[in-house]
## 1
Amino acid sequence: MILSLFRKNTATEPVYAVYSAIVAQSRQPRFYAEWGVPDTVTGRFDMISLHMALLFRRLRAESGAQKQFSQAVFDLFFKDMDRSLREMGVGDLGVPKRIQKMGNLFFGLLAALNEAMDRNDAAALQDVLARNIFDGIPGPHVASLADYLLAEDRALASQPASAITSGALSFEAAA
C-alpha cells in the first residue's frame, strides 16, 4: 500500500507534459515585451487561458480518451491556479470564489474565441483579444496576437490527437 505512493502514475504524465508545454509557451517574452500583454498575474492567467483554449479547440471533436484527457488538463490547470492563489496569500475561504470567477472568465473567453476562430474572422478575434486581454485597447499588438493564435490553431490542427494525448504537444508558430 505505502509503495503505491511512490510509483509514477503513467496515466498522468502526458497530462503534466501537455500542461507544462502550455505554461512554457505562455511565458514567451514576446507576448509581454513586444505585444504588450500585461506582465501581471492576470496577464499570465490570460496567456495560459489562450493556450488552453487552443488545446481544447484541437481536441473538441475527439471522443473517449481524448475527452477525458482534455478534462484532466483542465483539472490540472485549475489545481495549479488554486495552488498559485494560496501561494499569493489568498485565504481558504477566498480561493473557491476566485477559482469560480477564473472559471467563468476562462469559459467566456473560450466561447468568444471559438466563435471568432470558427468563422476565421480575424477582426472578431482582435475584438475578443482587445476586450479580454488588453482592457479594450486596440492596436497592432492585438493584431499580432490574433495572427499568432490563428497560426497556432492551424498548426495544432495538423498534430494527431494521439500524439497530444501521449504528451507531445508542440507549438510551431514563432513566439
## 2
Amino acid sequence: MAIMPTRRPEWLRVRVPTGENYEELKRLMRSKALHTVCEEARCPNIGECWAHRTATFMILGSICTRSCGFCAVATGRPMAVDWEEPRRIAEAVQQMGLRHVVITMVNRDELRDGGATIFAATIRWVRRLNPDCAVEVLTSDFKGSHEALKVLMDARPSVFSHNVETVPRLYLRVRPQAIYQRSLDILRTAKEMYPDIPTKTGFMLGLGETHDEVIELMRDLRANEIDILTIGQYLQPTQQHLPIDRYVTPEEFREYAREGKAMGFRHVESGPLVRSSYHAWDQVKAAGVETAVAD
C-alpha cells in the first residue's frame, strides 16, 4: 500500500488568492448568487485565474448527486432548478467582458434530462448577451442519455468537454457512480452529432495509475476522436477524500504531452497544476481548431 506524500513539492506551490480583480469577481459571484467550480472544487489556480478575470461557472446549484472520491463539491439532495440562473450567468459574462467562458455543472441524476435543458438555455443566454464570446461546456455523462446530449449539442457549444478523470481500473474507487465506457460513448457521440465542434477531456495523475494504463487510456481517447486533452496532478481536497498516491514530476507530465501529440491529439495540456478549464482559451488556440461564437 502506497504511503501518502506528506509535503508538496515546489512545483505545486501556489500563492494565496488576493488582489483587486479577485475581490471584485468574488463580489460579482455573490451578488448574482452564482457558483464557480474554482471555489467549490478548491482549485489551486483560483488566484491566478481570477486575477486575470477568468472563471469557470458551475450551474444547477452547488450540491451534486454523486460522490466521487476526488471531488470537493458537496454531495446530497440538490435544490430546485433555478431557471433564472442562465440569464444571471450571461449578465456576469457580460460584466466581465469575457471572450471565452467555461461553464460546467454538478451531476443532477434526479432530473429526467440530467440538466441538459437548462444547460442549453445557459448557452443561448450567454450568446444572446455576448455574441462574440465562445462558450465551452464541461458536462456530466447524462447517465448515457443521447437524447439529453442532443438537447445540449443542439445549442452548439463552441467546445464540448467531459472528463474521464482516471484510468478504467480505478473507476470503482474514484468515480463509483460513473462508467468508463459510458464516458467514452458520450464523447464519441458528441463528435458524431456535430463533427465541427471540438471535443475535449481530462484526467488526473497521482491516484495509483501505472504508466502503461495512462498510455492505454490516451489511446482509447484518441480512438474516439478527442481533439484536446488535459492532464493534471490529483490534489486531495480534504482528509475525507482519496489520498494522493504520489506526486508526478513535471518531466513525466511533459513526456505524456509528447506521447499525446504523437498519437494525434490536436493539443495536450499536461502539467502538475493543469485543470480542464485552466487557460481554456489558450488550449483551443494551441489546438488550432475553430470555435463558433454564434448560431
